[in-house]
């Protein structure tokens, strides 16, 4: 039997693995017409009369024609003025005009669940005890079907395009809001590993880590085609779980699981926390987790 060595992955390894994972996914389910390999970043923002950003929304458009709403933030002084509603609508309209058929997102029970429900989103998954004492909800909305639109009241502020720098600012502001609820114990701990053969070639890899709230997150697992069926994916998964437990993880969470690989996680003791039929078209998207 061929021997493999376990090594820590460098950043370039993780970036390469992510590209290989998506390459494999797009071979299984081709990209939608008019969409590319790379996710398309969207950002809309609202600034006050002095140019200070007081609200914004970031999102990503995938190669399968789906919108993922990432961050939505409104400065406390400007809330309940329809700024968030107008920003969400602006991002959804851009996505729909691009040909996106579905929008999905995640929000905690201390965040904006009622807001998204009001705007036509439906819960399709719940991750419990994340963080401790809270729940995280996965929600979706079809953009390609007729749906009565909740009217947005006009605002006194113009919506403008934002860039990566604005996205980082919005992410920082949301983190400030989340901090009292999350109460992180430490910084994110990377546990990225790879298996290399005797010639130094990467045969399999995992990108994963432990969040500050002690959740073990698995982002990507990849096994080279010629090495599949040898248990390398399971070996990496078990290694991660062992290391994550040592770092204090109290549960494991995996997103971006699909009907073609969900069986791998179920076989390894994970359970389905959410399922979204139709992402991508004619397939299903899953969130799976495992409590310790």
Describe the structure.
By secondary structure, the chain is α+β, with helices and mostly antiparallel strands. It folds into two domains: 5-29 and 185-291, Gcn5-related N-acetyltransferase (GNAT) (Aminopeptidase, 3-Layer(aba) Sandwich); 40-182, Gcn5-related N-acetyltransferase (GNAT) (Aminopeptidase, 3-Layer(aba) Sandwich), CATH 3.40.630.30. Helix content is 27%, strand content 35%. The chain contains six helices and 15 strands. Strand 12, helix 5 (232-246) and strand 13 form a beta-alpha-beta unit. The two termini are 33 Å apart. 33% of the residues are buried.
Uncertain parts: none
Give the biggest beta sheet: 8 strands, mixed
Helix content: 25-40%
CATH class annotation of the largest domain = Alpha Beta
The CATH homologous superfamily of the largest domain corresponds to Gcn5-related N-acetyltransferase (GNAT)
Counting H and I runs of at least 4 residues, what is the number of helices?
6
- What is the H/E order? EHEEEHEHEEEHEEEEHEHEE
CA-atom Rg in angstroms: 20 Å
- Percent strand equals 25-35%
Under the CATH scheme, the architecture of the largest domain is: 3-Layer(aba) Sandwich
Structural class: alpha+beta
CATH topology of the largest domain: Aminopeptidase
Q: Say what oligomer this is.
A: single chain
**Mean pLDDT, all residues:** 93
Number of strands: 15
Shape: globular
Termini, distance in Å?
Answer: 33 Å
What count of domains describes the coordinates?
Answer: 2
């Amino acid at each position: 039997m061929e021997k493999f060595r376990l090594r820590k992955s460098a950043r370039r390894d993780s970036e390469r693995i992510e590209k290989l994972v998506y390459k494999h996914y797009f071979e299984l389910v081709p990209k939608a017409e008019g969409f590319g390999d790379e996710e398309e970043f969207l950002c809309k923002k609202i600034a006050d009369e002095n140019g200070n950003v007081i609200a914004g929304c970031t999102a990503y458009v995938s190669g399968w024609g789906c919108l993922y709403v990432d961050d939505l933030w409104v400065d406390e002084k400007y809330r309940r003025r329809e700024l968030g509603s107008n920003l969400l609508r602006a991002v959804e309209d851009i996505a729909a005009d691009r040909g996106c058929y579905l929008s999905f997102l995640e929000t905690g029970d201390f965040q904006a669940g009622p807001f998204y429900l009001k705007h036509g989103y439906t819960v399709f998954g719940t991750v419990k005890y994340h963080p401790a004492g809270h729940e995280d909800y996965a929600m979706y909305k079809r953009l390609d079907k007729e749906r009565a639109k909740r009217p947005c009241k006009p605002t006194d502020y113009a919506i403008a395009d934002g860039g990566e720098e604005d996205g980082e600012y919005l992410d920082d502001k949301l983190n400030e809001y989340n901090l009292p609820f999350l109460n992180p114990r430490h910084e994110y701990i990377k546990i990225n590993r790879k298996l290399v053969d005797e010639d130094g070639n990467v045969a399999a890899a995992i990108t994963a880590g432990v969040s500050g709230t002690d959740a073990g997150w698995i982002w990507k697992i990849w096994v080279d085609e010629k090495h599949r069926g040898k248990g390398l994916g399971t070996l990496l998964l078990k290694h991660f779980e062992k290391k994550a437990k040592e770092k204090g993880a109290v549960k494991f969470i995996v997103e971006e699981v699909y009907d073609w690989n969900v069986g791998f996680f179920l076989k390894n003791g994970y359970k389905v926390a959410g399922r979204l039929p139709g992402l991508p078209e004619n397939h299903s998207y899953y969130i799976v987790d495992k409590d310790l």
